Amino acid sequence: MNNVRAITPHLTAVEVPEELRELSSWLIWRFEQYEDEPKPRKVPYWADGSRRHGQQGGSVDRARLTTFVAARDAAVRMGYDGVGFAPLPGCGYTFLDFDNCVDVDGSLPPEIEQIVGRTYAEYSPSGKGIRAALKGDLGNRKSKATDDQYGFETFSSSGFVTFTGNILPVSDLVVGPNYIAPAGDDVRNLSEKRFGCAQPQAEVDPEDFMLGREPRLGLSVEQMEELLSALDADMGRDDWIRVGMALHHETDGDDTGFELWDEWSSGGYSYPSTEGLRTQWDSFERRAGQRRRQVTMASVIKMAKDAGARPSEAGSRKEVLAKAEAIMADLPKKSLGRFGPVPIYDLTQRPAMSWLIKGVLPKARLGVLFGASGSGKTFVALDLAFSIARGVAWRERRTGKGNVVIIAAEGGSGIGKRAEAYAQHYGFDLREVANLHVITAAPNFLDADDISEVLAEIRNLGVDIDLIIIDTLAQVTPGANENTSEDMGRALGNINLLHDATEAMNLVVHHAGKDLSKGSRGWSGLKAAADVQIEVLRHESGEREIVIEKMKDGEDGLRWGLKLEVIDLGIDLDGDPVTSCVAVPAEAVRRKEDADDRKGVKKRGRMENHVLEVMTLFDDRSVVPAHELIDKAVADLPEPEPGKRDIRRQSLVRAIHSLSREKDGPLKMENGKIFFFE
Length: 678
Known about the structure:
- The structure is a single chain.
- This protein is α+β, with helices and mostly antiparallel strands.
- The protein has four domains: 11-195; 221-306; 365-600, Rossmann fold (3-Layer(aba) Sandwich); 604-676, Orthogonal Bundle (Arc Repressor Mutant, subunit A), CATH 1.10.10.
- 33% of the residues lie in helices and 19% in strands.
- The protein contains 22 helices and 24 strands.
- The strands form five sheets. It has a nine-stranded mixed β-sheet. Strands 4, 5, 6, 7, 8 and 10 form a six-stranded mixed β-sheet that branches.
- The model is unreliable at 1-9, 198-211, 311-315 and 593-602 (pLDDT under 50).
């Protein structure tokens, strides 16, 4: 009986193990036929459509690799043949490629069947081969297929592995679609048979006296803080561990280094807690006592340089003066260049600030609207958009009618229901609002071609655009390091290009950082560049509010109460209720000190915050089956230590019930479904 499944599933239906989905190691590929070659090659491309080249695992490569969903969507949008995982040095995974191993009846050699029966494995694009994923590093080896044996290849830190999502029946039945097993003796025995040894051995020079005695660089605390500020705390786990090792080495394992590592790590979404960090820190002490090469702060300096943290270069005094003389010679007498000084009185004669919404949204270049997950920032953005598109007052503030475009890069499939709920609540027909348009695809704001295409589509509307809402910054900068000026400066430059070409105000929807008292997440230059920054807060009491956190040419500190009102939109085909929310005015929040309020927001437990973060990963997160949320959330949590009971599911269920019981909380659970009110 032939057990081989169809090998060409629709690309949009491809799924991969949960623990691989969010790793920034994904690319796209397509078949390309080369002259004098019998079959086409699988050629890798980055998700922006550029052919992958240069150093694999280098700074450019890491910046342009992306998550699974972003790569899959790009492959669908651009008509590529598939997606692939690019293992990078230190990724912690090995992928096995068995070529021409599937018989016509679907059977496999017994040694392969043993391996694929205990871990995730799938058919290759041709259907004649098998791919299997394992934890551990078995090196990069290859043994070609011959007339009497199948081909065998391992990928641990180079190349790429195609994913079809076409899981083997035995793998699906025994371990399911999300389990990746550690490399075992079965794989090592096969590697030794085919390659001559189980895995590559690190070369150690026994005569190297300095091995394990690498000198410290003598950096100050301030210098180490500056280096860490250039790095993304959500970098891959292996690089994150290397940063900790380097700090441990530089500070001789004392608490100064630990506190630096802990404070920096707490800014990332993968932060395990101070206690979890302490356990890892103590393990470095055992490594330091071994005769192994130590990771030093030189590695962190290189990481920071790769992330764009380079000192600015100034020309010599003579060069600067010579250039100034040349510029002066080209300037007509008393004319003004870009930095021309003007009499101070002239500045008082310039036109007054113009507003889209008086005191809230200026007719300027850039605004940022940010908040924590579940605060309601997307609903607030939609409320602002409708007020301008309809020309109706917002919170009794004068509003000019204008044309609005929303780039719904995050949750674009759910914006229709939100708009329907808004129209139902305020009693108007959406067909009356012909000047509000939505882009539901997710452009890459690091890619010039995508920016050109977005700009062309917007200008093709044939009207003057007043406001462009970009929801969210993270979704339009796939693979970017949000903490670096290199990546965020590039994205900001392209956002400003939209303004230069359309004169529209750009309002960027963004996430709050782990420490809510520090404002929006990532690079501080974004706030510095913004003409207005608006925060959407959800307090421990359940009350919400909108705060003008910064207004460049206006009044800071203005605040309004906010409530998310649930709107019943009918029932679906299964008879279940369909609902969405609308951001509506509420009584002003009774004030405490700002710092106390923000600390109150952080009092949610780690599991509650984890549930809210995982909820944002769903394309349509307004209604999600509870079992899907729990499965996804469990996969993102570390496994319990050997011998300890696994209570992850119970803890997550308690967290969901806790969030559901909160007054005006971010979610509700009914009949096995979770309704999310972001």
